[in-house]
Write a structure and sequence with these properties.
306 residues; alpha+beta; Arc Repressor Mutant, subunit A; SH3 type barrels; 3 domains; four-stranded antiparallel β-sheet; 10 helices; 12 strands; 39% helix
C-alpha cells in the first residue's frame, strides 16, 4: 500500500467513526475498501497513537468502537444536522452567544444573509419547514410554494420569492408571483411550504425597494395602495398610553395641549383607521383620507349595532 493510499485509508477510517461509533471489522473493511488484515493493523496503530478505539470480540465477529463525544474539542454533525442547527440558531433573539454559534457553524453550511432573519416569531403549522426553507431560499434564490390562509379564512396556493423575515411584525416578506408585487405573509397562516417545482424564475427585489416597503408598513401590514401621510391627534388623558402602544410604523410628537400628534408616511390606511376608531372620543383624525376612513368605520359600527 503506497503512502498516499495509506493516508487516504486512515482518513476514511477516522471519518467512518464520526458517522457511526461502532463498526464490525469486516463491514468497516468493505466501507473503506481495505483488506481486513491491513485494516486491523491500521486500527491498532491509531489506537497506539491515542485514538480511543475499543476492541471487542464476539465470535465470529470483531467490533471496534469509539466512546460518545470522542472528538477532541467538538462533536460530529452531518451536513443535514448543521443546516438544522443553523435554522434553530437564527430563531433566537440577537446576542453575542448567538452570533458566536452562527459563525462557528457558517463554514459548514451556507449562512443566510445578515438581514434575512433577525429572531424568532410566532409559529404556525408549517413553522419548522418555514424556518428551514426560507433562509436557504433567500440565499440560493429559490421560489417556494406555500398554502396560505388569508385573514378571511380562505386558503390558497401561492408561489413566492422570499426576500426577508420581518422580526418586528413576524411576517415573511416575499414577491408574490400571482399578485406580481411584494406581499407580507404571517407565519401563523402558512399551512404548508416547500420548494416550488415550477419554471418560474426567482424575483430579486432591490434592497432600496424592500426597505421602503417595510418602512411603509403599519404593524406589519402593507395594503395595495400607495403610501401617504396619515395623522391624528389624541388627548392628554391617553397620551402616555398611546405613546407606548403605537402600531409599528407610526411616530408621535407632543402637541400644545398636552396630547400627542401621531403621524406616519405609510401604506396602511385601514389599519390606522381601525386604531383611531378604537381610541373613541379621545382621538381625532387630521388628514382627510384618514378622517373619511374613520367616519366610514364608525357608520358601519352604528349600523351593525341597530
Amino acid at each position: 500500500m503506497g503512502a498516499r493510499s495509506r493516508y487516504e485509508s486512515i482518513a476514511k477510517i477516522v471519518f467512518a467513526f464520526t458517522r457511526q461509533r461502532t463498526w464490525a471489522q469486516a463491514k468497516l473493511a468493505r466501507r473503506v475498501d481495505v483488506q481486513p488484515r491491513q485494516l486491523r493493523k491500521i486500527l491498532l496503530e491509531l489506537q497506539d497513537a491515542g485514538m480511543p478505539l475499543e476492541r471487542e470480540r464476539d465470535r465470529p465477529h470483531v467490533y471496534w468502537s469509539v466512546p460518545k463525544g470522542w472528538l477532541p474539542g467538538g462533536v460530529s454533525l452531518s451536513g443535514e444536522e448543521v443546516a438544522m442547527a443553523l435554522g434553530l440558531m437564527i430563531r433566537l433573539p440577537p446576542s453575542g452567544d448567538r452570533e458566536r454559534l452562527l459563525n462557528a457553524l457558517a463554514p459548514f453550511a451556507k449562512r443566510p444573509p445578515a438581514d434575512a432573519v433577525e429572531h424568532h416569531g410566532q409559529q404556525g403549522p408549517a413553522a419548522d419547514e418555514l424556518w428551514r426553507l426560507v433562509p436557504q431560499a433567500i440565499a440560493d434564490e429559490q421560489v417556494l410554494r406555500m398554502r396560505y390562509r388569508s385573514a378571511r379564512g380562505e386558503a390558497k396556493a401561492r408561489s413566492v420569492s422570499p426576500q426577508r423575515i420581518d422580526a418586528e411584525a413576524r411576517h415573511l416578506i416575499a414577491w408574490c408571483h400571482e399578485a406580481k408585487a411584494l406581499r407580507r405573509f404571517h407565519f401563523k397562516r402558512v399551512e404548508r411550504i416547500e420548494v416550488d417545482g415550477c419554471d418560474d424564475g426567482y424575483v430579486r427585489v432591490e434592497r432600496r425597494v424592500l426597505d421602503g416597503f417595510m418602512e411603509q408598513s403599519v404593524d406589519g401590514f402593507h395594503d395595495a395602495s400607495a403610501a401617504r401621510e396619515l395623522a391624528f391627534h389624541v388627548t392628554a388623558e391617553i397620551a402616555g398610553w398611546v405613546a407606548g402602544d403605537l402600531p409599528y410604523g407610526l411616530h408621535h410628537e407632543p402637541a400644545d395641549d398636552g396630547g400627542l400628534r401621531v403621524h406616519g408616511y405609510v401604506a396602511g390606511l385601514a389599519q390606522v383607521a381601525r386604531y383611531v376608531v378604537g381610541l373613541g372620543a379621545e382621538a381625532e383624525a387630521e388628514t382627510p383620507e384618514l378622517r373619511d376612513a374613520v367616519a366610514e368605520l364608525a357608520r358601519g359600527a352604528l349600523e351593525n349595532a341597530e
